[in-house]
Amino acid sequence: MIGGPRNAAADQARLPHNATFVRLGRKVWFMLEHSFRARGEGGELSNRLGKLKEQQDQIAQMNLFWMRIGSFDKRRTWNDDEWIAFLRTWQVNSNNVFMHGATTEEEGLAKAFTIYFIYYSNLPNTPDLPDNAPDGFDMNAAKADIDDKLQEFEDRLGDPLLQCNTCKTCALGRKMLRCSRCQSAHYCNIEHQKKNWKQHKKTCREITE
């Protein structure tokens, strides 16, 4: 049972995969948020996230030993255990938040993570994959599929996990500006880039081939 008390043998089998599971799940979640906002669906998405926040905060207050989740508003700073607990309910969360009004590409990204999630959650048992899962897929192929889809989104929209050097927030729905000199500092807008220059120029270095 994915959402219930943990099975020690299954947890032991998943342990080597936890870091990858969190990396993929966290990035997919924020990329879907990023994509929805980029195409003007931020208002409706915020309503759905508000309902999810109420549910998750109720779980956090219960302090269940197998479902330790922090405040939903602080999900960007959750540790791995908190993300694992949250992602255990991925199919319910993603269906409630992202599957209504999703584009074909967004549905494809969510489905790709669902397939990986099924492999992960059923370790060490043989997972019962969906009928529409690609033939010959295994856990590594599922991971590669997610990474490929994430890269396609990132090429178009930018990385949703980047933070502005000035305000320390993320510009979900907009592609961040990047310092053209060092390529490592990012900004919500040109005003923030100008505001941060006095401080950033102390460490900014031109990239050399």
Descriptive labels:
mainly alpha; 8 helices; 2 domains; 209 residues
Blueprint of the fold:
Layout: H1 8-14, H2 18-38, H3 42-62, H4 80-87, H5 90-97, H6 104-122, H7 139-157, E1 177-178, E2 186-187, H8 190-200
Antiparallel strand pairs: 1-2
Helix pairs in contact: 2-4, 2-6, 2-7, 6-7
Structure description:
- With 209 residues, the protein is an all-alpha fold.
- It has two domains: 8-157, no CATH class; 162-209, no CATH class.
- Helix content is 55%, strand content 2%.
- It has eight helices and two strands.
- A two-stranded antiparallel ribbon has the order 1-2.
- Helix 2 (18-38) runs antiparallel to helix 6, helix 2 packs parallel to helix 7 (139-157) and helix 6 packs antiparallel against helix 7.
- Mean pLDDT is 84; it is low at 1-5.
How many strands appear in the DSSP assignment? 2
Radius of gyration: 19 Å
Mean pLDDT: 84
How many helices? 8
> What string, H for helix and E for strand, traces the elements in order?
HHHHHHHEEH
Unreliable spans = 1-5
Shape assignment: globular
What oligomeric state is this?
single chain
Residues in helix, % = 40-55%
**Main sheet?**
2 strands, antiparallel
β-strand percent reads under 5%
Count of structural domains: 2
Task: Give the structure's gist in a few sentences.
The chain is an all-alpha fold and 209 residues long. The chain is 55% helix and 2% strand.
